Amino acid sequence: MSVALVCMSHSPLLEFNDPPAEVKAEVDSAFATARAFVHAYDPTLVVSFAPDHYNGFFYDLMPPFCIGYEALGVGDYGTAEGPLDVPTVRAEELAQWVAERDLDIAISRRMEVDHGAIQPLEILLGGIDTVPTIPVFVNGVARPFVKMSRVRRLGEAVGSFLASLEDERVLVIGSGGLSHDPPVPQWATANDAQRALLLNGRHPTAAARDARQQNVIDAGKAFAAGTATIQDLNPEWDRALMATFATGDLTALDAMDPAQMARDAGNSAHEVRTWVAAFAALAASGPYAVTSSYYRPIREYIAGFGVMTALPSSS
Q1: Can you give the CATH number for the domain in which 276 is found?
Q2: Among 310, 302, 300, 238, CA closest to 280
């Protein structure tokens, strides 16, 4: 068994709002470095920790964590639509393993995943069915949020399962963040139409999806122009978090408070929970070393944009 890690920001605006050419070239280079890392590692199994943006999970039933036994891409923002190659038996074994370690885990035999899960698979692996993938949903948008220590324990439990696999090279992906506050409705302040979306907005019409996506695209353009009202990015917060991941002392993140995270880094900064879970899964195999790290605040993407790769120190 071996484990490698890629954590990366995602943005639905990658193909819609271009930053300055030199910034886009930087991002492309960071992705190329991560792709080369993945290609050299040649994974036989992927475990993807990813959030959702009210495309697959809604307030009619919102678990903190969910393991997918089967999964489908919803096709938002031009990402791939259709089934992922999920090794169902292995996913069932993982869920049982996690449950036996006193962590409550939801499961789905028809998980629907959006760009948060799909974009890294397309960028790093060239598609959603090129390598068997177990999707693990980590709630990063809907209050209430569990303690960060719980997220870390989820990652440790998943990592201990992966460490028991003798015949796999596992790539762990954490997708989301960093600081950002896109125009995602909050239940407390949402109007009736927005609450209907948050409650159960599954399978919208093409026109409804286009309108929702155009709102985010327009917000990104306005944010880049300095005319949007959404919360600003927080590069200092982002860099400090990435530095903590590089130290390997993930218990330092247990004190992160959900309300303070939103104040400091935006409502969608909670997506960094996927990074915590992913790094904890890697750390379950022992000390690790970061092999590449990129960061830049990119207003066109409404994201503090980061990419990190890591391997066990003994590798």
Answers
A1: 3.40.830.10
A2: 310
Instruction: Measure the CA–CA gap between 157 and 132, rounded to whole angstroms.
Output: 20
Q: What is the mean pLDDT of residues 2-15?
A: 95
Query: Strand pairing partners for 174?
Result: 7, 49
Reported confidence tier of residue 314, pLDDT bands at 50, 70, 90: confident
Q: Which residues are catalytic?
A: 115, 180
**Whether the Cβ atoms of residue 306 and residue 9 lie closer than 8 Å to each other:** yes
Looking at 47-127, list the stretches that DSSP marks H as alpha helix, in order from N- to C-terminal side: 88-99, 115-125
Let me know: does 146 contact 66? Beta carbons within 8 Å: no
* pLDDT tens column, 202-215: 999 999 999 999 99
| Sheet of strand 288-298, all strands in order from the earlier edge strand to the far edge | 106-108, 65-68, 133-138, 45-50, 169-175, 2-8, 303-312, 288-298
Neighbours of 31 (CB within 10 A): 18
DSSP state of 249: -
pLDDT value for 315: 65
Q: Quick: pLDDT tens for 261-295.
A: 999 999 999 999 999 999 999 999 999 999 999 99
Range of 23's domain?
A: 2-312
Task: Name the domain count of the chain.
Answer: 1
Burial of 144 (0-12, 13-18, 19+ CB in 10 A): exposed
Q: Averaged over 188-201, what is the pLDDT?
A: 95
Global pTM value: 0.96
